[in-house]
């Protein structure tokens, strides 16, 4: 991932969310098989292990590591890095009251880690390193992990349910962006801002234009609501409609520039969401890709390399590929 693309993740992590699967808020950490897998892994580690989590976001994996460390008195030293400008201590509610410490560092490229050789006993990553040059990341992992250390990665499965839902989510986002909604909202808000106030003299032609803009906006809202009736991301649909309608109805309280600025802000948020979904889809790997990752690790001297699918309960609900190895 280039630094120029990183703004979409800066924005995403500057909020009270932990998970990165676009589940409509992600304010709680991963549960189910994902959490179970990490808990088993961290429980197996030696006391005082030095852990580095790459592409950490707001620290989903380090938080689980900290919980395991606290529960089992393992006294882990935990570091989480990300290329994005992360600051979990600022954005995560309840972070200050955690009974353990995590050293978070933003602006860190996993392809060029600012750490000495063999600085860590364990390196982890979930839904992260696949966005970059994996060969370079693996080289850095081999360099900074100590002899006898471990690495583990969890990567979105291309044929998995998360990626499939994200593809539909992206289609819905693009319909919001490129369908009738924003154009009709902009026209209606512009018209009502200029001519809808009580002190403005209006001709019959302007009155007709106001009515037409209002009707077109109402029709666009109805069309979007009908098209996305069974949306996989109803929160995005509802937020977009509610914000635009609210902005339109409160034109008397703000200048035109402020109202249109709100439209631009909302458009940018949905666009960033669509870009993140596209990036996730492009970065996901299939079984052949997972096998290639395992071979790359073996070629760098890693041993006991494993490559296993992760399911959400039933075998037809593939989530991810998990690749692990020993140094």
Question: Gist?
Answer:
The chain is α/β, with parallel strands linked by helices. The chain contains 11 helices and 7 strands.
Notes on the protein architecture:
- The chain is α/β, with parallel strands linked by helices.
- It folds into 2 domains: 3-160 and 284-326, Rossmann fold, CATH 3.40.50; 163-279, no CATH class.
- The chain has 11 helices and 7 strands.
- The protein has helices at 7-13, 32-43, 60-72, 88-91, 134-144, 161-178, 181-195, 204-227, 234-249, 256-283, 287-299, and strands spanning 50-54, 77-82, 102-106, 120-126, 145-156, 303-311, 318-326.
- Helix 1 packs across helix 10 (256-283) and helix 2 packs across helix 3.
- It starts with 6 loop residues before the first helix and ends with a strand.
- 40% of the residues are buried.
């Amino acid at each position: 991932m280039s630094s120029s693309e990183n703004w979409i993740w800066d924005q995403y992590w500057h909020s009270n969310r932990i998970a990165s699967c676009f589940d409509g808020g992600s304010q709680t950490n991963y549960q189910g098989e994902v959490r179970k897998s990490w808990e088993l892994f961290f429980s197996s580690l030696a006391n005082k292990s030095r852990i580095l989590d790459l592409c950490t976001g707001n620290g989903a994996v380090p938080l689980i590591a900290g919980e395991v460390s606290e529960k089992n008195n393992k006294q882990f030293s935990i570091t989480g890095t990300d290329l994005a400008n992360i600051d979990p201590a600022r954005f995560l509610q309840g972070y200050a009251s955690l009974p353990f410490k995590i050293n978070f560092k933003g602006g860190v490229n996993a392809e060029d880690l600012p750490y000495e050789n063999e600085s860590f006993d364990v390196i982890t990553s979930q839904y992260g390193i696949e966005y970059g040059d994996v060969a370079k990341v693996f080289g850095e992992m081999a360099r900074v992990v100590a002899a006898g250390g471990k690495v583990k990665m969890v990567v979105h499965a291309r044929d998995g349910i998360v990626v499939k839902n994200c593809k539909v989510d992206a289609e819905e986002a693009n319909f919001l962006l490129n369908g009738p909604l924003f154009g009709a909202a902009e026209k209606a808000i512009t018209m009502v801002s200029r001519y809808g106030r009580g002190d403005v003299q209006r001709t019959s032609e302007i009155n007709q234009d106001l009515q037409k803009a209002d009707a077109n906006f109402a029709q666009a809202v109805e069309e979007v609501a009908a098209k996305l009736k069974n949306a996989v991301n109803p929160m995005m649909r509802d937020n977009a409609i509610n914000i635009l309608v609210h902005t339109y109805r409160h034109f008397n309280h703000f200048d035109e520039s402020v109202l249109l600025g709100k439209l631009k802000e909302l458009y940018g948020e949905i666009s960033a969401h669509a870009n993140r979904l596209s990036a996730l889809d492009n970065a996901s790997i299939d079984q052949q890709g997972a096998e290639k990752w395992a071979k790359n690790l073996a070629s760098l001297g890693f041993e006991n390399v494993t490559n296993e699918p992760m399911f959400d309960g039933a075998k037809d609900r593939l989530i991810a590929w998990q690749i692990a190895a020993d140094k």
